[in-house]
Give the backbone structure.
Amino acid sequence: MKFFATLLLALFGAAHDSLADGLSNLDQATEPYVNTLHAQAIEKSLWHDRGWINLVHYKPSKFNFQSKNYSSYVDDEKFFLSNKGVTQPKAELLATLTALFDVDVDVDVDVDVDVDVDVGGGDEHAQCRFPARLAWLSERLNVDRQRLPRVECTLYNKWQAMVNVESVVLIFPAHHLNSPSSMFGHTLLRLDPAAGREHSDWLAYGVNFGANIPQGDNSILYAYKGLSGGYPGQFIVEPYFKKIQEYNRVENRDIWEYPLNLTPAEARRLGTHLWELKDINFAYYFFTENCSYRLLELLEVARPGAELTDEFVMTAIPIDTVRSIERTGFISGYQYRPSIASQLHAQISRLPAHLKPLPIELAEHGADVGAEDLLALSEEQQYRVLQAAYNIVRYRQAKAGRDQASAKHSLALLTALSAYPPRPLLDIPSPVAPEKGHESKRLSVSAGRDKKSNYVDMGFRMAYHSLLDNEYGFLDGAQINMASLAVRHYDDETLKLERLDVADIFSLTPKDDVFNSLSWRVYGGLERVNTENERPLVAHVTGGGGYAYAMGGGTVYGLLDARIESNKEFNQSIELAVGPELGWVYKNKLGGGSVKTSWLEFTGSEQRLDFSLEQDIVLSINHSLRFKGIRRWYDNYTASEYSLSYHYFFR
């Protein structure tokens, strides 16, 4: 290495003499000092410290401080200074100490520890690449900074000046059913500068972790790779206003902002570590090592005593991580940022009934701001009608794209609004914060009767929320059930699998003159089908689309369903069925309820008609009872079934 360093100096030439002097500090005083630091680190077993474990992202579930059974979540060799650093925290720590001084010395360490490091200069020097490691090691070993080589970290210094983080805000955009990667919601961080600096939320920086998905990958490929770790994931730091535009305006997702009580020193430590993760790859898994899990790791770096990731072994659902952050005392409050759709709902709902058609007419038929109907209103009403019309145009532009006609229309409305004296923004009441809702996992036990037999069901759902679950803290009309399992025991039979739903997603959005949203449902897995002689376990995928309308204190909907089913009793092993589904989902003082009927006819001529009633009875946030009654009219089979279930929600 001494030869290599000498060769580097010769190649850089006289123009780099001053930098080279700082990088090749190989005098006799440096070698024993680095030896001393190594000895101190070994004496303290410093690589076992939670702060070091967090900085190099070693898996907390594999901690065994008396062995070397470690593995870093980082899937990128350029993050490590030792070729054993992925699995050996000790090797990585000692290699980092060596690299910070840019020397090749004979250090007194274990023979199985590799500290042979090829170190670059300038922005590639370890001091520039790993400033958070440098700060942590300096604090724990009381490193004499005067002995460090002088290195100019140009890129890092520019980045620090640009971000200048002093405080951190946790961001939770609500779930988005039409995006597979965001159906459970999402979390990111906002980095705010010092209070004394001119600041706007729009000018802050957002920190997002996501999968690097190549163009052309469809939803099926995304699901497979996302579940199996087929995508690399990276942290991205970009202006926060871009995230507001993406979530709040384009996707029409409400945003919840939670200021965190990190000290300025903790916030700066997080920001410094983010620089170390620039362009670094992690494995990405949709349910576990995802956007939310990685943000928990960042907060553990900021505050090493916090233990946020330990509880997330099976899943890391975004809202569950928000709850974990709240339980550990990070959150100091919240702010609700409504989407354009939520603002529009509030604006139209507050107009008198006879005025509600007017903003729709202005939005659809041109900005006739001089219309008699508009001018006959009070000035306040004129302003509110024009404001609602403008937001209708913006909402439709976000969904369908901006063209010349809509841009002209939008400008005319905005010009008309500017003629009125400024008014305060419409106060939109904040809904119940999403972390206040029930927990994501669910256990259930049911007792029921099917035809002439009594049974007991035991069920488990990995995630997340159904239409009839307690709606407190959840978006109305959105159902996301993943990995639902039920086993059944009859009085005269052994235990059998009753159903296994891989996914059951239902988007029930009422249609009106402004919101022309399609309602849809898709679900699939294994389930038992009632027949005269037995109840075969069949595999199926079922989906449908249609429209829903607000009516009768709830939502009435109609779907056209299609089903592909593999059933050993069919003439063909796989058959297709189609048919209508009509239903009413409502809320009352007890909880949620539904009335539903569906009819299917298969290509093999089998017909199935179902009629069902369900009522959920909310006992508390995480406890409920549910009554269900079903009447079935199938080929050669007619019977009723009813059951009473207890549901327990947990994390």
The longest helix spans residues 379-400. Residues 1-27, 61-67, 104-120 have pLDDT under 50 and may be disordered. Residues 355 and 385 are 8 Å apart (CA to CA).
